[in-house]
């Protein structure tokens, strides 16, 4: 077995407040191999985006990474110098934010920003960088790319700005892309084109992808493995077909049964009762217990440890039986 490209072990990120420090990411473990796409799914507030920010050390105060390791090619990014991190970000590790305005500078043209992203990490000249930038825009469905390079972010729609951000992330063919719900603002046709380009990049160059989303249909189309997150913890992880066809954690089953894209036409949706707990008021034991139809007495006492192996595991005292149909 070769070492994974990315290995996250015991990652814990807290947010400090007047009444204490509350964990948004609470002991997260997962790995991503070269060329693998891992889908990280869960409801809003589950800790998905904070996990992505933590991997590249972009958590600002009052947030703080207080424990764990983020090993990228064996190097712990939690202990890397700012200079090392600047050299990796945008080159070997690219991040696509949910809000493209976090990426784009309003006073620079699109071409200037994309060329800078290339020349900061690669030798070459500006005309060559601009040609690469134009090619990248065309790949994500932006017409007249040479004209678009001369324009400013405010001249683009929100969806087009997001496509520019995605194109910028693909420029240097990074080893790892961390994508935080990057296709939420795009129509389904452009979304399919983006997913195709990401899959193509992964196959041809070995780029690994962490795709953070709440959309299980995207995960089904794109991912090799799925990690399901709830209340700051990964509660189930495994190959995409296993997770979608035979979920073991009740929360995973609830997500599938409440998603219109994952239910057969004519079938009734079964939403999960209640809401996810706030980070400052999580229940004792299993955090999903108050919403779980399969909860036992032990669930209020003991947080279940992972059951299974590194490839397929879940955290539940009373898992969904393997033979039980989704309903």
TrEMBL record:
What one GO molecular function would you report for this record?
ATP binding
Cellular compartments annotated: Cell inner membrane
Tell me which UniProt keywords the record has, alphabetically: ATP-binding, Cell membrane, Membrane, Nucleotide-binding, Transport
**Per the similarity annotation, which family is this?**
Belongs to the ABC transporter superfamily.
Q: Which GO terms describe its cellular component?
A: plasma membrane
Gene3D superfamilies per the record? P-loop containing nucleotide triphosphate hydrolases
Q: Which PANTHER family match?
A: DIPEPTIDE TRANSPORT ATP-BINDING PROTEIN DPPD, OLIGOPEPTIDE TRANSPORT ATP-BINDING PROTEIN APPD
- GO BP of this protein: peptide transport; transmembrane transport
Pfam families from the UniProt entry: ABC_tran, oligo_HPY
Q: Which organism is it from?
A: Stella humosa
- What is this protein identified as? Peptide/nickel transport system ATP-binding protein
Q: Where is the ABC transporter domain?
A: 8-256
Its placement in the membrane is given as: Peripheral membrane protein
Entry keyword Nucleotide-binding: yes
